[in-house]
Write a structure and sequence with these properties.
The protein is of the alpha+beta class. It is 28% helix and 26% strand. It is globular. The strands form two sheets. The protein has a five-stranded antiparallel β-sheet with strand order 1-2-3-4-5, sandwiched between helices. Strands 6, 7, 8 and 9 form a four-stranded antiparallel β-sheet that branches. The protein contains four helices and nine strands, in the order E-E-H-H-E-E-E-H-E-H-E-E-E.
């Protein structure tokens, strides 16, 4: 499969990661507001390792979490993209959509704008039959983005995230799904 290196929206460029993205992405990952619904903020080394893992997913699958750049300014805003779910659950194997946007760029519609383009790529170019999204039950902001995208909560498929310990306040997760609008009959 040919790797999808770049996609664009009206205001955004979603592209592969560059060396100069590491410092601003580390700042995003160290922000307690951005990382409120994750296990913890990331150190610089953890953030760099995350970029390395993202790039490995691109090499294996032809897609991954793209760096999100504001078209006019060139500012790195965060990430949006697709990745195989890397743990076992009732809904796996599956491909998830995810996003992480710098807190100073919240409220501008960047996450839904980028995610809509990613869904389009996932369904039309990658021909995925379904894309899922999940987050901690208490993460109302991400849930609102999932709903804006037209994803539907699968109440029966809610789950405890296996990478979080029993009793952790973020362990209980909701699952949202979207089926491809394209009939991929071969």
């Amino acid at each position: 499969m040919k790797t999808i290196d770049r996609i664009e929206t009206q205001r955004l460029i979603l592209r592969r990661w560059r060396e100069e993205d590491r410092a601003p992405f580390a700042d995003i990952n160290a922000d307690p507001k951005v990382m409120e619904y994750f296990k913890s903020p990331l150190t610089r080394a953890e953030s760099d390792s995350f970029i390395d893992r993202i790039e490995n997913v691109f090499e294996q699958n032809g897609y991954g979490f793209w760096a999100v750049e504001e078209r006019g300014s060139g500012k790195l805003l965060g990430l949006t993209g697709l990745a195989p779910v890397m743990f076992q659950a009732s809904f796996t194997p599956a491909v998830e959509i995810g996003w992480r946007i710098a807190s100073d760029s919240w409220g501008k519609g960047y996450a839904p704008e980028a995610a809509r383009m990613v869904l389009d790529v996932g369904f039309h170019r990658l021909r995925l039959p379904e894309i899922v999204a999940f987050t901690a039950v208490i993460n109302k902001n991400s849930r609102r983005v999932m709903e804006k995208l037209g994803m539907t909560q699968d109440v029966a498929a809610g789950f405890d995230h296996p990478n979080l310990p029993e009793g952790h306040m973020l362990r209980s997760h909701v699952l949202y799904r979207m089926k491809s609008p394209v009939n991929h009959v071969m």
